[in-house]
Design goal:
The complex is a heterodimer of chains A (about 300) and B (about 290). Chain A is mainly alpha-helical and about 300 residues long. Chain A contains 15 helices and no strands. Classes of the chains: A mainly alpha (about 300), B mainly alpha (about 290). Chain B: This is Carbohydrate ABC transporter permease.
Chain lengths: ~300, ~290
Protein backbone atom coordinates (compact mmCIF):
# COMPACT_ATOMS: atom_id res chain seq x y z
CA UNK A 1 0.00 0.00 0.00
CA UNK A 2 2.93 2.38 0.63
CA UNK A 3 4.13 2.42 -2.98
CA UNK A 4 1.12 4.14 -4.64
CA UNK A 5 0.86 6.66 -1.81
CA UNK A 6 4.48 7.85 -2.15
CA UNK A 7 4.11 7.89 -5.92
CA UNK A 8 1.42 10.55 -5.67
CA UNK A 9 2.39 14.23 -6.01
CA UNK A 10 3.25 16.01 -2.76
CA UNK A 11 0.40 18.50 -3.15
CA UNK A 12 -2.11 15.66 -3.09
CA UNK A 13 -0.38 14.15 -0.05
CA UNK A 14 -0.51 17.34 1.93
CA UNK A 15 -4.15 17.71 0.99
CA UNK A 16 -4.80 14.14 2.09
CA UNK A 17 -2.97 14.76 5.35
CA UNK A 18 -5.04 17.87 5.98
CA UNK A 19 -8.27 16.01 5.20
CA UNK A 20 -7.40 13.15 7.53
CA UNK A 21 -6.46 15.46 10.36
CA UNK A 22 -9.71 17.40 10.03
CA UNK A 23 -11.91 14.46 9.09
CA UNK A 24 -14.16 14.96 12.09
CA UNK A 25 -15.54 18.26 10.83
CA UNK A 26 -14.96 17.50 7.17
CA UNK A 27 -17.47 14.64 7.56
CA UNK A 28 -19.93 16.26 9.92
CA UNK A 29 -20.00 19.85 8.71
CA UNK A 30 -21.82 19.51 5.33
CA UNK A 31 -24.84 17.81 6.89
CA UNK A 32 -24.86 20.25 9.79
CA UNK A 33 -24.53 23.31 7.56
CA UNK A 34 -27.30 21.97 5.30
CA UNK A 35 -29.82 21.43 8.09
CA UNK A 36 -28.57 24.43 10.04
CA UNK A 37 -29.19 26.78 7.10
CA UNK A 38 -32.55 25.24 6.25
CA UNK A 39 -33.65 25.63 9.88
CA UNK A 40 -31.89 28.76 11.12
CA UNK A 41 -32.75 31.14 8.28
CA UNK A 42 -36.47 30.26 8.26
CA UNK A 43 -36.64 30.23 12.05
CA UNK A 44 -35.13 33.70 12.40
CA UNK A 45 -37.44 34.91 9.64
CA UNK A 46 -40.47 33.34 11.33
CA UNK A 47 -39.58 35.02 14.63
CA UNK A 48 -39.23 38.34 12.77
CA UNK A 49 -42.55 37.86 10.94
CA UNK A 50 -44.28 37.08 14.25
CA UNK A 51 -43.35 40.61 15.36
CA UNK A 52 -44.85 42.27 12.27
CA UNK A 53 -48.29 42.64 10.76
CA UNK A 54 -47.25 40.97 7.47
CA UNK A 55 -50.29 39.97 5.46
CA UNK A 56 -51.20 39.14 1.87
CA UNK A 57 -47.65 38.88 0.61
CA UNK A 58 -44.37 38.69 2.47
CA UNK A 59 -42.98 41.33 0.13
CA UNK A 60 -45.84 43.73 0.85
CA UNK A 61 -44.82 46.51 3.25
CA UNK A 62 -45.38 45.52 6.85
CA UNK A 63 -44.95 47.29 10.16
CA UNK A 64 -43.12 46.19 13.25
CA UNK A 65 -45.80 45.66 15.88
CA UNK A 66 -43.78 44.22 18.76
CA UNK A 67 -45.54 41.60 20.81
CA UNK A 68 -49.08 42.59 19.86
CA UNK A 69 -49.49 39.43 17.69
CA UNK A 70 -48.73 37.35 20.74
CA UNK A 71 -51.33 39.28 22.78
CA UNK A 72 -53.84 38.80 19.97
CA UNK A 73 -53.18 35.07 19.75
CA UNK A 74 -53.29 34.58 23.52
CA UNK A 75 -56.67 36.33 23.75
CA UNK A 76 -58.09 34.39 20.79
CA UNK A 77 -60.59 32.01 22.37
CA UNK A 78 -62.27 31.48 19.03
CA UNK A 79 -59.59 29.67 17.08
CA UNK A 80 -56.26 29.50 18.93
CA UNK A 81 -57.19 27.99 22.30
CA UNK A 82 -59.65 25.46 20.83
CA UNK A 83 -56.86 24.43 18.44
CA UNK A 84 -54.49 23.98 21.41
CA UNK A 85 -57.16 21.88 23.11
CA UNK A 86 -57.71 19.72 20.02
CA UNK A 87 -53.97 19.23 19.62
CA UNK A 88 -53.79 17.91 23.18
CA UNK A 89 -56.92 15.75 22.83
CA UNK A 90 -55.71 14.29 19.56
CA UNK A 91 -52.16 13.62 20.77
CA UNK A 92 -53.14 12.45 24.26
CA UNK A 93 -55.98 10.23 23.07
CA UNK A 94 -54.04 8.64 20.24
CA UNK A 95 -50.87 8.19 22.30
CA UNK A 96 -52.65 6.60 25.29
CA UNK A 97 -54.51 4.03 23.19
CA UNK A 98 -51.47 3.34 21.01
CA UNK A 99 -49.31 2.64 24.08
CA UNK A 100 -51.80 0.27 25.74
CA UNK A 101 -52.80 -1.51 22.53
CA UNK A 102 -49.18 -1.53 21.34
CA UNK A 103 -48.06 -3.14 24.58
CA UNK A 104 -50.79 -5.81 24.36
CA UNK A 105 -49.88 -6.68 20.77
CA UNK A 106 -46.14 -6.64 21.54
CA UNK A 107 -46.69 -9.07 24.42
CA UNK A 108 -48.79 -11.33 22.16
CA UNK A 109 -46.02 -11.35 19.56
CA UNK A 110 -43.18 -11.66 22.05
CA UNK A 111 -42.76 -15.44 22.21
CA UNK A 112 -42.12 -17.15 18.86
CA UNK A 113 -45.00 -18.94 17.12
CA UNK A 114 -45.83 -20.40 13.72
CA UNK A 115 -46.78 -17.80 11.11
CA UNK A 116 -45.06 -15.03 13.07
CA UNK A 117 -43.58 -13.61 9.88
CA UNK A 118 -47.02 -13.08 8.33
CA UNK A 119 -48.45 -11.37 11.38
CA UNK A 120 -45.47 -9.02 11.44
CA UNK A 121 -45.90 -8.16 7.75
CA UNK A 122 -49.61 -7.48 8.33
CA UNK A 123 -48.74 -5.10 11.13
CA UNK A 124 -46.14 -3.33 9.02
CA UNK A 125 -48.53 -2.49 6.17
CA UNK A 126 -50.53 0.36 7.81
CA UNK A 127 -47.25 1.87 8.97
CA UNK A 128 -45.78 2.26 5.47
CA UNK A 129 -49.04 3.22 3.73
CA UNK A 130 -49.16 6.79 2.40
CA UNK A 131 -51.08 8.89 4.98
CA UNK A 132 -53.06 10.81 2.34
CA UNK A 133 -54.23 7.55 0.77
CA UNK A 134 -55.02 6.20 4.24
CA UNK A 135 -57.12 9.31 4.87
CA UNK A 136 -59.05 8.79 1.62
CA UNK A 137 -59.54 5.10 2.39
CA UNK A 138 -61.08 5.84 5.79
CA UNK A 139 -63.12 8.64 4.27
CA UNK A 140 -64.87 6.06 2.10
CA UNK A 141 -65.22 3.53 4.94
CA UNK A 142 -66.65 6.19 7.28
CA UNK A 143 -68.91 7.76 4.65
CA UNK A 144 -72.32 8.12 6.39
CA UNK A 145 -74.30 6.85 3.37
CA UNK A 146 -72.19 4.33 1.50
CA UNK A 147 -69.43 3.54 4.03
CA UNK A 148 -68.73 0.09 5.38
CA UNK A 149 -68.57 1.35 9.00
CA UNK A 150 -72.30 2.10 9.17
CA UNK A 151 -73.10 -1.11 7.31
CA UNK A 152 -71.17 -3.01 9.99
CA UNK A 153 -73.03 -1.18 12.77
CA UNK A 154 -76.30 -2.02 10.99
CA UNK A 155 -75.58 -5.77 11.28
CA UNK A 156 -75.52 -5.31 15.06
CA UNK A 157 -78.62 -3.09 15.06
CA UNK A 158 -76.71 0.06 16.00
CA UNK A 159 -77.98 3.28 14.32
CA UNK A 160 -75.85 5.07 11.71
CA UNK A 161 -73.15 7.43 12.94
CA UNK A 162 -72.03 10.62 11.17
CA UNK A 163 -68.31 9.77 11.76
CA UNK A 164 -66.12 12.30 9.92
CA UNK A 165 -69.00 14.61 9.04
CA UNK A 166 -70.26 15.09 12.60
CA UNK A 167 -68.91 18.01 14.63
CA UNK A 168 -68.46 15.89 17.76
CA UNK A 169 -67.47 12.63 16.08
CA UNK A 170 -64.89 13.88 13.55
CA UNK A 171 -61.97 14.26 15.96
CA UNK A 172 -62.47 10.88 17.71
CA UNK A 173 -62.80 9.22 14.29
CA UNK A 174 -59.48 10.73 13.21
CA UNK A 175 -57.89 9.64 16.48
CA UNK A 176 -59.04 6.14 15.53
CA UNK A 177 -57.39 6.48 12.10
CA UNK A 178 -54.16 7.62 13.75
CA UNK A 179 -54.34 4.63 16.11
CA UNK A 180 -54.90 2.28 13.17
CA UNK A 181 -51.89 3.63 11.32
CA UNK A 182 -49.38 4.17 14.13
CA UNK A 183 -50.01 1.49 16.78
CA UNK A 184 -47.72 -0.80 14.71
CA UNK A 185 -44.88 1.69 15.24
CA UNK A 186 -45.33 1.42 19.03
CA UNK A 187 -45.54 -2.38 18.72
CA UNK A 188 -42.24 -2.55 16.84
CA UNK A 189 -40.42 -0.32 19.34
CA UNK A 190 -41.78 -2.18 22.39
CA UNK A 191 -41.11 -5.55 20.77
CA UNK A 192 -37.49 -4.54 20.16
CA UNK A 193 -37.29 -3.65 23.84
CA UNK A 194 -38.92 -6.90 24.94
CA UNK A 195 -36.60 -9.09 22.85
CA UNK A 196 -33.56 -7.33 24.29
CA UNK A 197 -34.62 -8.23 27.86
CA UNK A 198 -32.97 -11.20 29.55
CA UNK A 199 -35.26 -13.99 30.72
CA UNK A 200 -33.74 -14.24 34.19
CA UNK A 201 -35.74 -11.62 36.17
CA UNK A 202 -38.98 -12.95 34.69
CA UNK A 203 -37.97 -16.53 35.51
CA UNK A 204 -36.98 -15.56 39.07
CA UNK A 205 -40.34 -13.89 39.64
CA UNK A 206 -42.13 -16.94 38.26
CA UNK A 207 -40.27 -19.19 40.70
CA UNK A 208 -41.18 -16.80 43.52
CA UNK A 209 -44.81 -17.41 42.65
CA UNK A 210 -45.75 -14.19 40.82
CA UNK A 211 -48.68 -14.51 38.40
CA UNK A 212 -48.44 -13.23 34.80
CA UNK A 213 -49.92 -9.82 35.60
CA UNK A 214 -47.57 -9.32 38.56
CA UNK A 215 -44.61 -10.41 36.45
CA UNK A 216 -45.57 -7.91 33.74
CA UNK A 217 -46.32 -5.01 36.10
CA UNK A 218 -43.45 -5.38 38.58
CA UNK A 219 -40.73 -6.99 36.45
CA UNK A 220 -41.13 -6.51 32.70
CA UNK A 221 -42.60 -3.00 32.63
CA UNK A 222 -39.97 -1.36 34.90
CA UNK A 223 -37.21 -2.98 32.83
CA UNK A 224 -38.88 -1.64 29.70
CA UNK A 225 -39.21 1.93 30.99
CA UNK A 226 -36.59 3.56 28.75
CA UNK A 227 -38.06 1.85 25.67
CA UNK A 228 -41.52 3.12 26.60
CA UNK A 229 -40.11 6.65 26.90
CA UNK A 230 -38.55 6.34 23.43
CA UNK A 231 -41.92 5.24 22.07
CA UNK A 232 -43.68 8.18 23.76
CA UNK A 233 -41.14 10.70 22.47
CA UNK A 234 -41.03 9.43 18.88
CA UNK A 235 -44.78 8.93 18.56
CA UNK A 236 -45.63 12.07 20.56
CA UNK A 237 -43.62 14.36 18.29
CA UNK A 238 -45.29 12.94 15.19
CA UNK A 239 -48.79 12.95 16.72
CA UNK A 240 -48.47 16.62 17.72
CA UNK A 241 -47.49 17.47 14.14
CA UNK A 242 -50.17 15.32 12.45
CA UNK A 243 -51.30 17.08 9.29
CA UNK A 244 -51.82 14.71 6.37
CA UNK A 245 -54.87 12.71 7.51
CA UNK A 246 -56.55 15.79 9.01
CA UNK A 247 -56.12 17.91 5.89
CA UNK A 248 -56.91 15.03 3.51
CA UNK A 249 -60.20 14.18 5.22
CA UNK A 250 -61.49 17.56 6.41
CA UNK A 251 -59.69 20.06 4.16
CA UNK A 252 -59.08 23.73 4.89
CA UNK A 253 -59.51 24.96 8.45
CA UNK A 254 -60.22 21.46 9.77
CA UNK A 255 -63.82 21.35 8.48
CA UNK A 256 -66.54 23.98 8.25
CA UNK A 257 -66.76 24.31 12.05
CA UNK A 258 -62.99 23.85 12.57
CA UNK A 259 -63.86 20.61 14.32
CA UNK A 260 -60.46 18.97 13.68
CA UNK A 261 -58.35 22.12 13.50
CA UNK A 262 -55.17 21.39 15.47
CA UNK A 263 -52.31 23.88 15.85
CA UNK A 264 -50.52 22.52 12.79
CA UNK A 265 -53.62 22.70 10.59
CA UNK A 266 -54.43 26.17 11.96
CA UNK A 267 -50.93 27.46 11.26
CA UNK A 268 -50.97 25.96 7.77
CA UNK A 269 -54.32 27.56 7.02
CA UNK A 270 -53.20 30.97 8.28
CA UNK A 271 -50.07 30.76 6.12
CA UNK A 272 -51.31 29.34 2.86
CA UNK A 273 -55.08 29.70 2.77
CA UNK A 274 -55.39 33.16 4.38
CA UNK A 275 -51.82 34.53 3.94
CA UNK A 276 -51.95 36.04 7.42
CA UNK A 277 -48.20 35.64 7.98
CA UNK A 278 -47.82 37.69 11.16
CA UNK A 279 -50.36 35.68 13.16
CA UNK A 280 -49.32 32.41 11.47
CA UNK A 281 -45.70 32.92 12.53
CA UNK A 282 -46.78 33.70 16.08
CA UNK A 283 -48.80 30.48 16.27
CA UNK A 284 -45.89 28.53 14.82
CA UNK A 285 -43.36 29.91 17.30
CA UNK A 286 -45.71 29.03 20.17
CA UNK A 287 -46.30 25.57 18.68
CA UNK A 288 -42.58 24.95 18.36
CA UNK A 289 -42.01 26.07 21.97
CA UNK A 290 -44.78 23.74 23.10
CA UNK A 291 -43.15 20.74 21.40
CA UNK A 292 -39.72 21.61 22.86
CA UNK A 293 -41.16 22.02 26.38
CA UNK A 294 -43.12 18.74 26.20
CA UNK A 295 -40.14 16.78 24.89
CA UNK A 296 -37.86 18.34 27.48
CA UNK A 297 -40.34 17.43 30.21
CA UNK A 298 -40.52 13.79 29.10
CA UNK A 299 -36.75 13.33 28.80
CA UNK A 300 -36.03 15.37 31.94
CA UNK A 301 -38.38 13.20 34.00
CA UNK A 302 -36.59 10.16 32.64
CA UNK A 303 -33.23 11.49 33.88
CA UNK A 304 -34.71 12.51 37.23
CA UNK A 305 -36.08 9.01 37.70
CA UNK A 306 -32.72 7.35 37.29
CA UNK B 1 -35.39 -24.64 40.61
CA UNK B 2 -33.82 -24.86 44.05
CA UNK B 3 -36.22 -22.23 45.29
CA UNK B 4 -39.17 -24.55 44.71
CA UNK B 5 -37.44 -27.48 46.36
CA UNK B 6 -36.43 -25.60 49.51
CA UNK B 7 -39.66 -23.65 49.76
CA UNK B 8 -42.60 -25.90 48.86
CA UNK B 9 -45.22 -24.30 51.14
CA UNK B 10 -45.28 -21.07 49.09
CA UNK B 11 -46.20 -22.64 45.79
CA UNK B 12 -48.55 -25.08 47.44
CA UNK B 13 -50.34 -22.34 49.35
CA UNK B 14 -51.04 -20.41 46.18
CA UNK B 15 -51.89 -23.54 44.24
CA UNK B 16 -49.56 -22.30 41.55
CA UNK B 17 -48.56 -25.39 39.57
CA UNK B 18 -52.13 -26.37 38.82
CA UNK B 19 -53.10 -22.84 37.89
CA UNK B 20 -50.16 -22.47 35.61
CA UNK B 21 -50.92 -25.72 33.86
CA UNK B 22 -54.48 -24.58 33.26
CA UNK B 23 -53.38 -21.24 31.83
CA UNK B 24 -50.98 -22.99 29.52
CA UNK B 25 -54.00 -24.85 28.16
CA UNK B 26 -56.13 -21.77 27.44
CA UNK B 27 -53.57 -19.09 26.60
CA UNK B 28 -52.44 -20.42 23.18
CA UNK B 29 -56.04 -20.45 21.95
CA UNK B 30 -56.76 -16.96 23.28
CA UNK B 31 -53.52 -15.81 21.73
CA UNK B 32 -54.34 -17.24 18.29
CA UNK B 33 -57.80 -15.64 18.33
CA UNK B 34 -56.38 -12.29 19.47
CA UNK B 35 -53.69 -12.39 16.78
CA UNK B 36 -56.25 -13.20 14.07
CA UNK B 37 -58.43 -10.28 15.20
CA UNK B 38 -55.43 -7.94 15.18
CA UNK B 39 -54.37 -9.01 11.69
CA UNK B 40 -57.95 -8.52 10.43
CA UNK B 41 -58.15 -5.06 12.04
CA UNK B 42 -54.99 -3.93 10.27
CA UNK B 43 -55.58 -5.66 6.93
CA UNK B 44 -59.33 -5.41 6.27
CA UNK B 45 -59.41 -1.63 5.64
CA UNK B 46 -56.66 -2.05 3.04
CA UNK B 47 -58.56 -4.94 1.46
CA UNK B 48 -61.65 -2.74 1.42
CA UNK B 49 -59.71 -0.05 -0.44
CA UNK B 50 -58.62 -2.54 -3.10
CA UNK B 51 -62.18 -3.95 -3.44
CA UNK B 52 -63.66 -0.48 -3.87
CA UNK B 53 -61.07 0.34 -6.53
CA UNK B 54 -62.36 -2.62 -8.57
CA UNK B 55 -66.01 -1.53 -8.46
CA UNK B 56 -67.73 0.80 -10.85
CA UNK B 57 -69.39 3.83 -9.29
CA UNK B 58 -72.87 2.27 -9.36
CA UNK B 59 -71.76 -0.77 -7.36
CA UNK B 60 -70.01 1.38 -4.74
CA UNK B 61 -73.35 2.98 -3.90
CA UNK B 62 -75.15 -0.39 -3.79
CA UNK B 63 -75.07 -1.99 -0.31
CA UNK B 64 -76.18 -5.37 -1.71
CA UNK B 65 -72.96 -5.50 -3.76
CA UNK B 66 -70.61 -5.10 -0.80
CA UNK B 67 -68.68 -8.27 -1.49
CA UNK B 68 -70.24 -9.82 -4.59
CA UNK B 69 -69.82 -7.64 -7.67
CA UNK B 70 -68.31 -7.75 -11.15
CA UNK B 71 -64.75 -6.45 -10.87
CA UNK B 72 -63.65 -3.86 -13.39
CA UNK B 73 -60.34 -2.21 -14.18
CA UNK B 74 -62.12 0.88 -15.49
CA UNK B 75 -60.98 3.00 -12.51
CA UNK B 76 -57.35 2.11 -13.07
CA UNK B 77 -57.63 2.92 -16.75
CA UNK B 78 -59.18 6.24 -15.80
CA UNK B 79 -56.49 7.08 -13.27
CA UNK B 80 -53.47 5.90 -15.23
CA UNK B 81 -54.31 7.10 -18.72
CA UNK B 82 -56.82 9.93 -18.47
CA UNK B 83 -55.37 11.52 -15.35
CA UNK B 84 -51.74 11.02 -16.34
CA UNK B 85 -50.75 9.24 -13.17
CA UNK B 86 -47.64 7.85 -14.82
CA UNK B 87 -46.24 11.38 -14.66
CA UNK B 88 -46.99 11.65 -10.93
CA UNK B 89 -45.54 8.20 -10.30
CA UNK B 90 -42.36 9.27 -12.05
CA UNK B 91 -42.26 12.55 -10.08
CA UNK B 92 -42.72 10.80 -6.75
CA UNK B 93 -40.10 8.23 -7.64
CA UNK B 94 -37.56 10.76 -8.88
CA UNK B 95 -37.94 13.07 -5.86
CA UNK B 96 -37.74 10.17 -3.38
CA UNK B 97 -34.76 8.64 -5.18
CA UNK B 98 -32.76 11.86 -5.57
CA UNK B 99 -33.42 13.09 -2.04
CA UNK B 100 -32.40 9.71 -0.62
CA UNK B 101 -29.15 9.51 -2.59
CA UNK B 102 -28.15 13.10 -1.79
CA UNK B 103 -29.02 12.65 1.89
CA UNK B 104 -26.89 9.50 2.01
CA UNK B 105 -23.92 11.40 0.60
CA UNK B 106 -24.31 14.08 3.28
CA UNK B 107 -25.60 11.89 6.09
CA UNK B 108 -23.46 8.75 6.15
CA UNK B 109 -20.07 10.49 6.69
CA UNK B 110 -21.72 12.86 9.17
CA UNK B 111 -23.21 9.99 11.16
CA UNK B 112 -19.82 8.25 11.08
CA UNK B 113 -18.02 11.28 12.54
CA UNK B 114 -20.80 11.85 15.08
CA UNK B 115 -20.60 8.24 16.22
CA UNK B 116 -16.79 7.90 16.31
CA UNK B 117 -16.15 11.29 17.97
CA UNK B 118 -19.35 11.16 20.11
CA UNK B 119 -20.53 14.56 18.86
CA UNK B 120 -23.85 14.58 20.71
CA UNK B 121 -24.46 18.32 20.41
CA UNK B 122 -23.72 18.34 16.69
CA UNK B 123 -26.05 15.39 16.20
CA UNK B 124 -28.72 17.39 17.96
CA UNK B 125 -28.52 20.11 15.28
CA UNK B 126 -29.40 17.57 12.60
CA UNK B 127 -32.02 15.80 14.72
CA UNK B 128 -33.72 19.12 15.52
CA UNK B 129 -35.03 18.86 11.96
CA UNK B 130 -37.14 15.90 13.11
CA UNK B 131 -38.76 17.90 15.89
CA UNK B 132 -39.48 21.24 14.25
CA UNK B 133 -42.96 21.59 12.65
CA UNK B 134 -42.55 21.66 8.89
CA UNK B 135 -45.06 24.49 8.44
CA UNK B 136 -42.80 26.92 10.31
CA UNK B 137 -40.15 26.45 7.62
CA UNK B 138 -42.46 26.42 4.62
CA UNK B 139 -43.39 30.12 4.51
CA UNK B 140 -39.77 31.34 4.50
CA UNK B 141 -38.70 28.57 2.15
CA UNK B 142 -41.50 29.41 -0.23
CA UNK B 143 -40.49 33.04 -0.47
CA UNK B 144 -36.74 32.42 -0.64
CA UNK B 145 -37.19 29.88 -3.39
CA UNK B 146 -39.83 31.93 -5.19
CA UNK B 147 -37.34 34.79 -5.33
CA UNK B 148 -34.75 32.42 -6.76
CA UNK B 149 -37.41 31.29 -9.28
CA UNK B 150 -37.06 27.70 -8.09
CA UNK B 151 -40.60 26.96 -6.90
CA UNK B 152 -42.28 24.45 -9.19
CA UNK B 153 -38.99 22.79 -10.14
CA UNK B 154 -37.61 19.50 -8.91
CA UNK B 155 -34.71 21.17 -7.07
CA UNK B 156 -36.76 22.68 -4.23
CA UNK B 157 -38.85 19.56 -3.81
CA UNK B 158 -35.77 17.37 -3.54
CA UNK B 159 -34.19 19.85 -1.13
CA UNK B 160 -37.27 19.90 1.10
CA UNK B 161 -37.52 16.10 1.09
CA UNK B 162 -33.83 15.90 1.99
CA UNK B 163 -34.78 17.83 5.08
CA UNK B 164 -36.95 14.85 6.07
CA UNK B 165 -34.53 12.18 4.84
CA UNK B 166 -31.27 13.52 6.27
CA UNK B 167 -32.17 13.46 10.00
CA UNK B 168 -33.65 9.99 9.53
CA UNK B 169 -30.48 8.70 7.85
CA UNK B 170 -28.19 10.34 10.41
CA UNK B 171 -30.26 8.91 13.29
CA UNK B 172 -30.25 5.36 11.89
CA UNK B 173 -26.60 5.44 10.83
CA UNK B 174 -25.34 6.79 14.19
CA UNK B 175 -26.86 3.83 15.99
CA UNK B 176 -25.50 1.52 13.28
CA UNK B 177 -21.93 2.86 13.56
CA UNK B 178 -22.20 2.75 17.36
CA UNK B 179 -22.73 -1.00 17.11
CA UNK B 180 -19.87 -1.56 14.62
CA UNK B 181 -16.61 -2.69 16.29
CA UNK B 182 -13.61 -0.35 16.02
CA UNK B 183 -11.03 -3.14 15.66
CA UNK B 184 -11.37 -3.65 11.90
CA UNK B 185 -10.81 0.03 11.22
CA UNK B 186 -7.80 0.10 13.54
CA UNK B 187 -6.43 -2.99 11.80
CA UNK B 188 -6.82 -1.30 8.43
CA UNK B 189 -4.91 1.73 9.71
CA UNK B 190 -2.14 -0.51 11.03
CA UNK B 191 -1.99 -2.00 7.54
CA UNK B 192 -1.19 1.44 6.17
CA UNK B 193 -4.49 3.02 5.22
CA UNK B 194 -5.24 6.60 6.20
CA UNK B 195 -8.23 7.09 8.56
CA UNK B 196 -10.41 8.22 5.64
CA UNK B 197 -9.11 5.32 3.57
CA UNK B 198 -10.01 2.93 6.37
CA UNK B 199 -13.52 4.42 6.48
CA UNK B 200 -13.97 4.08 2.72
CA UNK B 201 -12.48 0.59 2.34
CA UNK B 202 -13.44 -1.24 5.53
CA UNK B 203 -16.23 0.55 7.39
CA UNK B 204 -18.34 1.55 4.40
CA UNK B 205 -18.53 -1.96 2.87
CA UNK B 206 -19.49 -3.32 6.30
CA UNK B 207 -22.22 -0.67 6.57
CA UNK B 208 -24.24 -1.92 3.60
CA UNK B 209 -27.06 -3.34 5.79
CA UNK B 210 -27.30 -0.07 7.73
CA UNK B 211 -27.24 2.00 4.56
CA UNK B 212 -29.91 -0.25 3.03
CA UNK B 213 -32.12 0.25 6.09
CA UNK B 214 -31.65 4.02 6.04
CA UNK B 215 -32.26 4.27 2.28
CA UNK B 216 -35.44 2.19 2.31
CA UNK B 217 -36.97 4.20 5.14
CA UNK B 218 -35.87 7.50 3.66
CA UNK B 219 -37.41 6.51 0.32
CA UNK B 220 -40.70 5.54 1.99
CA UNK B 221 -40.92 8.73 4.05
CA UNK B 222 -40.20 10.86 1.02
CA UNK B 223 -42.68 8.95 -1.15
CA UNK B 224 -45.37 9.45 1.51
CA UNK B 225 -44.62 13.13 2.18
CA UNK B 226 -47.55 15.39 1.50
CA UNK B 227 -47.14 18.82 3.09
CA UNK B 228 -43.91 19.96 1.44
CA UNK B 229 -45.04 18.87 -2.00
CA UNK B 230 -48.45 20.49 -1.46
CA UNK B 231 -46.79 23.91 -1.21
CA UNK B 232 -43.60 23.56 -3.23
CA UNK B 233 -44.59 21.44 -6.23
CA UNK B 234 -45.76 22.95 -9.50
CA UNK B 235 -47.97 21.62 -12.27
CA UNK B 236 -45.14 19.53 -13.71
CA UNK B 237 -43.61 18.30 -10.46
CA UNK B 238 -46.75 17.24 -8.59
CA UNK B 239 -46.17 14.09 -6.54
CA UNK B 240 -48.67 11.27 -5.98
CA UNK B 241 -50.04 12.33 -2.55
CA UNK B 242 -50.80 15.82 -3.90
CA UNK B 243 -52.39 14.34 -7.01
CA UNK B 244 -54.66 12.19 -4.84
CA UNK B 245 -55.57 15.16 -2.68
CA UNK B 246 -56.53 17.18 -5.77
CA UNK B 247 -58.96 14.44 -6.75
CA UNK B 248 -61.43 15.50 -4.08
CA UNK B 249 -61.38 19.24 -4.60
CA UNK B 250 -64.27 18.89 -7.04
CA UNK B 251 -67.92 18.86 -6.01
CA UNK B 252 -68.60 15.13 -6.14
CA UNK B 253 -66.08 12.45 -5.36
CA UNK B 254 -65.35 9.75 -7.93
CA UNK B 255 -64.84 7.09 -5.24
CA UNK B 256 -63.77 4.29 -7.55
CA UNK B 257 -61.01 6.31 -9.17
CA UNK B 258 -59.98 7.83 -5.84
CA UNK B 259 -59.50 4.35 -4.38
CA UNK B 260 -57.66 3.20 -7.52
CA UNK B 261 -55.34 6.19 -7.14
CA UNK B 262 -54.82 5.35 -3.47
CA UNK B 263 -53.95 1.78 -4.39
CA UNK B 264 -51.49 3.06 -7.01
CA UNK B 265 -49.65 5.13 -4.39
CA UNK B 266 -49.67 2.59 -1.54
CA UNK B 267 -49.04 -0.70 -3.34
CA UNK B 268 -45.46 0.02 -4.52
CA UNK B 269 -44.52 0.94 -0.95
CA UNK B 270 -46.19 -2.17 0.44
CA UNK B 271 -44.37 -4.41 -2.02
CA UNK B 272 -41.08 -2.82 -0.96
CA UNK B 273 -42.10 -3.38 2.67
CA UNK B 274 -42.90 -7.06 2.06
CA UNK B 275 -39.42 -7.76 0.73
CA UNK B 276 -37.45 -5.52 3.10
CA UNK B 277 -39.43 -6.09 6.29
CA UNK B 278 -36.31 -6.91 8.32
CA UNK B 279 -34.57 -3.66 7.35
CA UNK B 280 -37.64 -1.49 7.94
CA UNK B 281 -38.14 -2.91 11.43
CA UNK B 282 -34.49 -2.47 12.36
CA UNK B 283 -34.55 1.10 11.06
CA UNK B 284 -37.75 2.11 12.83
CA UNK B 285 -36.50 0.67 16.11
CA UNK B 286 -32.93 2.02 15.78
CA UNK B 287 -31.73 3.39 19.09
CA UNK B 288 -34.97 2.38 20.82
CA UNK B 289 -33.36 -0.13 23.14
CA UNK B 290 -30.27 1.90 24.02
CA UNK B 291 -32.15 3.85 26.65
Amino acid sequence: MTAPVTARPTAWRSYSNWANRHRKWLFAAPAMIFTGLLIAVPLVWTIYLSLTDAEGSVRAPSDFVGLSNYLEVFSDFNRFWPAVGRTFIFTGGALAVELVLGMVIALLLWRPFRGERWVRVAILLPLVATPVAVGMMWRLIFDPNIGFANQLLGWFGIPDQPWLSGTDTALPTLIFVDIWQWTPMVVLILLAGLTSLSDEPDEAARIDGANSWQRFWYVTLPLLRSTVVVAIVLRGIDALKTFDILYATKGKGGGSFHEVETLNVYAYGLSFDYNDYGIASTVLILFFLLIIVLMWAVTYRRKANR
Amino acid sequence: MTAIVTNPPLSERKGLPAKRRRRRGVYPIVRVIALILIVLLFILPLVWMVIASLKNNVDIYDASKTIIFTPTLENYANVLSRNNYFVFIFNSFWVAFASTVLSLILGVPAAYAMSRFTMHKSALVVLLARIIPGVSLLVPWYFIFANLRLVGGFGVLILSHMFVALPLIVYIMISFFDSLPLELEEQAQVDGLTPIGAFLRTTLPLSVPGIATASILSFIFSWNNFMFALVLSGAHTKTLPVAIFNFVSYASIDWGSLMAASVVVTVPIMIIALFTQKYIVSGLTAGATKG
